[in-house]
Amino acid sequence: MNNNHETMMEAAGAFAVKGQVETCEPYGSGHINSTFLLVCRDGAEEYRYILQQMNHQVFKDIEGLMKNVKGVTSFLRRQIVENQGDPDRETLNLVPTKDGRDYYIDSQGNFWRVYLFIADATCYNLVKKPEDFYQSGKAFGRFQCLLADFPADQLTETIPDFHNTPARFETFAKAVEEDVMGRAAQVEKEICFIQEREKEMGLALNLKQEGKLPVRVSHNDTKLNNIMIDDATGQALCIIDLDTIMPGFSIFDYGDSIRFGANTAEEDEKDLTKVSLSLPLFEIYTKGFLEGSEGRLTETEIGLLPYGAKMMTLECGMRFLTDYLQGDVYFHVSREGHNLDRCRTQLALVADMEEKWSDMERIVKTYQG
After folding, report:
1. CA 310 – CA 252 distance, rounded (Å)
2. What is the DSSP string of 46-90?
3. Cα dihedral angle (126, 131, 133, 139), rounded to 10 degrees?
């Protein structure tokens, strides 16, 4: 992406911010968009904003993406006001351009947007203590609660078939068949592991077609670092990074959090004996998620939470193996066999979930209410 100083300042000057632009510096640790802290001043008053250059190579439909963000944040703001919350801190707030648009296209064809800056809150990349994971679960559960009445079918699919697991399996099967790198023979065990679970992959879509599993607003990147934690209270404050909001399933948002946060090992751990599902972390996240959702999830959704965790982990492992078979063309790798290590970690976690399935179901029922 082009984010040189000249185009950055051009973009900053296009938005209806308060005061005059004073500084604009790189901010945060995101890998997709380029993010800057924009500081403006009007006399003694200082105003801070987040300026972002959106990655239109990853997100092809910026107009659809921004329509999603505008619709969801506006809806959230109304819900927060009704609940007597602070709408300037508990949701992202877009700042319009001077001509009233939600985003700006600069002279080089780059896409920009501005949010109000949320002060006295922090995003954490790692779960440092169980309370962090509990707050994460509560935040994403509340996200589902507040958006339960939002018409999810009106959202644009910013990444088509993102969690369409059967479609992911078709791509995987094609990669196995074509075997362009000649790697399939050495990963027969992993290939068979995935193939043996093919019949489970379509359950969510089948239940949706039968009208038994509701389509909801799905965040699709439910990691801890996409939640702002209030510095004073330590409580979850605001969900950020809304670019992957799409129609989807609550069980998959829940499941991806478990996949990422309740694994006892790193995502690319070579020693598979270190890989397991932490039942204490699984429990504390489940507790938070169901508390936050405040009864807005159906019994079917709640009963499928363990399935969501397993399926998101299996899908992720399948994607890593697909990329390994195709020559490591999608995920960035830093060593030989990196995607294979990632795949094996995910599949080992799936296997451990299957061993602990009755415990997972028992925990979910405990907090079902």
Report:
1. 9
2. EEEEEEEEE-TTT-S-HHHHHHHHHHHHHHHHHHHHHTT--TTTS
3. -120
Tokens 């949320």 -> residue: 118
Report in angstroms the alpha-carbon separations of 324 from 111, 280, 341.
Answer: 32, 32, 10
Which one, of 358, 359, 252, lies nearest residue 304 by Cα? 252
- The structure tokens listed for 166 are 């059967």
Per-residue pLDDT of 99-153, as tens digits, reads: 999 999 999 999 999 999 999 999 887 777 888 899 999 999 999 999 999 999 9
Is the separation of the CB atoms in 216 and 115 below 8 Å? no
What pLDDT band is residue 43 in, cutting at 50, 70 and 90? very high
* pLDDT value for 57: 86
Separation of alpha carbons 15 and 117, rounded Å: 14
The residue type at 140: F
DSSP string, 87-155: TTTSS--EEPBTTS-SSEE-TTS-EEEEEE---SEE--SS--SHHHHHHHHHHHHHHHHHTTTS-GGGS
CA atoms within 13 A on the CB side of 159: 19
Cα–Cα distance, 217 to 254 (Å, whole number): 12
> Interior CA angle at 325 toward 322 and 327, to 5°?
110
CA atoms of 189 and 200, how far apart (whole Å): 19
Banded pLDDT at 222 (limits 50, 70, 90): very high
In this predicted structure, the answer to whether residue 177 has a pLDDT above a threshold of 90 is yes
E-only strand ranges, 164-220: 216-218
Measured CA distances, 100 to 62, 104, 113 (Å): 17, 10, 12
End-to-end C-alpha distance for the chain, whole angstroms: 48
Q: Which residue has the tokens 């061993």?
A: 355
| Residue 227 bridge partners (DSSP) | 239
Q: Which residues of 232-257 are buried (b: 16+ CB within 10 A; e: fewer)?
A: eeeebbbbbbbbbbbbbbbbbbbbbb
pTM: 0.92
- Extract long-range pairs of 65-68: CB within 8 Å, 24+ residues apart: 65/156, 65/158, 65/243, 66/102, 66/103, 66/113, 67/156, 68/155, 68/156, 68/158, 68/242, 68/245, 68/246
Angle among Cα 324, 175, 354 to the nearest 5 degrees reads 70
Do residues 135 and 288 lie in contact, with contact meaning Cβ atoms separated by under 8 Å? yes
